[in-house]
Design goal:
The complex is a heterodimer of chains A (111) and B (112). Chain A has strands at 4-6, 10-13, 19-25, 31-38, 42-49, 56-57, 64-70, 73-78, 87-94, 101-102, 106-110. By secondary structure, chain A is mostly beta strands. In chain A, strand 7 and strand 8 (73-78) form a beta hairpin. The chains are: A mainly beta (111), B mainly beta (112). Chains A and B meet through strand 5 and strand 10 of A and strand 5, strand 9 and strand 10 of B.
């Protein structure tokens, strides 16, 4: 079974802090994604990566950056957290254009 | 206009009935279509994928695709209370590069 893990299930940070969210997949998938999910807005793509060291902006990249130094790991970075970044963050991976496998999610609260 | 549209619901059906969930999409070049189920507080998980026109059945689930009408649906037969969840339609679009676009989801309640 594909396994996608995320570093934290719940995280509480203060405004202005730098926040790292990490995602690891164990199926050698080339594509990895970061989404945020908010009530009524559905899943919104922040960034995705189709190969090591490659990244593409999604629909809402402002205030975020990413890093993919190894194929299995994709990190989301909030350089200076703000309250409007309080959300559920979901990581996913896929092989080519197939289905995406999601991690359990990180619920981030920024105070 | 949203690229993938779903009725947000909630859709309420009695136990044992057929639940019908619908999704329309705007990119005519789309070739891959997926239905995900998301329980409250959990992450999405794949139920069905469909790539060609017609019906695809898997147990109590049937996905239907009509590319001419840009329409994909999910039927759940013999609905159970455990089917109560939000169902997300996802479409692989190719305009401006490959991209998976998710609908906002339809909430389904199955009443015992």
């Amino acid at each position: 079974d594909v396994k996608v893990t995320q570093s934290s299930r719940y995280l509480v940070k203060r405004t202005g802090e730098k926040v790292f969210l990490e995602c690891v997949q164990d199926m050698d998938h080339e594509n990895m994604f970061w989404y945020r999910q908010d009530p009524g807005l559905g899943l919104r793509l922040i960034y995705f990566s189709y190969d090591v060291k490659m990244k593409e902006k999604g629909d809402i990249p402002e205030g975020y950056s990413v890093s993919r130094e190894k194929k299995e790991r994709f990190s989301l970075i909030l350089e200076s957290a703000s309250t409007n970044q309080t959300s559920m963050y979901l990581c996913a991976s896929s092989f080519s254009e197939d289905e995406q496998f999601f991690g359990p999610g990180t619920r981030l609260t920024v105070l | 206009q949203k690229e993938v549209e779903q009725n947000s619901g909630p859709l309420s059906v009695p136990e044992g009935a057929i639940a019908s969930l619908n999704c329309t999409y705007s990119d005519r070049g789309s070739q891959s279509f997926f239905w995900y189920r998301q329980y409250s507080g959990k992450s999405p998980e794949l139920i069905m994928s469909i790539y060609s026109n017609g019906d695809k059945e898997d147990g109590r689930f049937t996905a239907q695709l009509n590319k001419a009408s840009q329409y994909v649906s999910l039927l759940i037969r013999d609905s159970q209370p455990s089917d109560s969840a939000t169902y997300l339609c996802a479409v692989n679009g190719y305009t401006g590069g490959f991209k998976t676009i998710f609908g906002a989801g339809t909430r389904l309640f199955v009443k015992a």
